[in-house]
Specification:
With 380 residues, this protein is of the alpha/beta class. Helix content is 38%, strand content 16%. The longest helix has 29 residues, at 2-30.
Length: 380
């Protein structure tokens, strides 16, 4: 009887010890996700900076430039994080609009966006239902786009697009926010065209088989979709009216003049007076921790050569372009770093900087942004 009681006590003691040990282990590991990404210990009862060491960066559907550039940035930030305890992961999304909503909901911590789409979201204008509390981190490569058509389409001007079947970008991507103003300033409304929603790769196929008359194509120069179109059939770049182009530049801070050098695209020996319709930029939530964004901006800047080595769009992270204003205020953490680095534009209005004379700044920045070689046809 005594032996039986002793054995029971031992079993009970072992069970209690195991339970306590398991509870301790669970408690320890449950705190792992609350690490401060900057590597600093939270003070007192303050929540950890950023809430987690895992930072999701929204990009876009596979086939565009955003996923490639986002992956290049994420890899570089993870490789050169130093004492910062973060893990950045590029996440495929539906594009700029989805990324902005994801930041607002806290589903993303960083995102790539077209600055034209960010401009309207920041103000709650165009098709946005409210003002979105987003902030810019770094301005990247120009998004140089235009209407492309087959040489035998009969389309010679933007006015000729009336009544034509025109691809304006993927559904829900928000391309109408820069396509719309371009059309309207040229006297063409969105209702005047038979608009088609499709990504750039399928858009080129639609041009090829005649199921579309024109398509709005572009990206960082050279844009793979345009390269693909020019290699597949004889193309025409539908010209912008020079006066209209200037009005667009004066009216919206995200539009800038951009001359595409001759021979950039097959069959186009002469320069094309194009338009940056909204630079790619990295954005975050206004509520993002200042120290975290400071460290991310600092790491991006100091490792910009590695980003550029992975994708030519990284060449736009330079002294003239990184802190360039495109219509969305910069995050305080980014501003703090740019001031320390001596590249913050100290003109009147600081966060509204470089709106005057931006075209010349854009032209110089774009020279450094353009990759030296054309990407493979499969890259878009």
């Amino acid at each position: 009887m005594a032996r039986s009681l002793s054995r029971r006590k031992n079993i009970f003691s072992v069970a209690c010890f195991s339970a306590v040990a398991m509870f301790a282990a669970v408690t320890m590991f449950s705190g792992c996700g609350k690490t401060d990404p900057t590597g600093k210990e939270p003070k007192g009862d303050d929540p950890p900076v950023g809430g987690t060491s895992f930072l999701s960066m929204g990009t876009a559907p596979i086939g565009g430039t955003f996923p490639i550039v986002g992956d290049a940035i994420a890899q570089t930030l993870n490789t050169h994080k130093g004492d910062n305890n973060w893990k950045v992961q590029a996440k495929g999304t539906k594009g700029s609009q989805a990324n902005i909503r994801g930041l607002q909901k806290g589903e993303l911590q960083l995102a790539l966006s077209n600055s034209a789409i960010s401009y309207f979201a920041f103000r709650g204008e165009s098709s946005w239902d409210q003002k979105y509390d987003i902030r810019a981190v770094v301005t990247m490569a120009p998004n140089v786009a235009m209407f492309v058509t087959k040489a035998d389409s009969g389309i010679k001007s933007i006015a000729d697009l009336k009544g034509k079947r025109v691809v304006i970008g993927p559904a829900g991507a928000g391309f109408e926010m820069f396509v719309g103003p371009i059309l309207e300033e040229h006297g063409v409304s969105m209702e005047d065209i038979d608009k088609v929603n499709a990504p750039q790769g399928p858009a080129v196929d639609m041009l090829s088989d005649g199921s579309a008359d024109a398509a709005f194509l572009g990206g960082a120069v050279p844009a793979a979709a345009i390269s693909q179109a020019c290699a597949s059939f004889e193309t025409i770049f539908v010209p912008f009216d020079s006066k209209v182009r200037q009005r667009l530049i004066e009216k919206y801070p995200f539009f800038h003049a951009f001359t595409i050098p001759g021979n950039t695209y097959q069959g186009h020996e002469e320069p094309f007076e194009g338009l940056n319709v909204g630079s790619m930029h990295v954005i975050t939530s206004a509520s993002a921790d200042e120290e975290l964004i400071y460290q991310l901006t600092k790491t991006t800047w100091e490792s910009r050569a590695d980003i550029a080595a992975k994708h030519g769009a990284g060449k736009a992270i330079n002294e003239k372009n990184a802190a360039r204003y495109t219509g969305t205020d910069f995050h305080p953490g980014a501003i703090r770093f740019y001031k320390e680095a001596g590249i913050w534009p100290e003109s009147e209005g600081a966060n509204d900087a470089v709106t005057g004379g931006a075209a010349s700044v854009e032209t110089e920045a774009s020279k450094e942004a353009a990759p030296e070689e054309k990407p493979a046809k499969s890259e878009e």
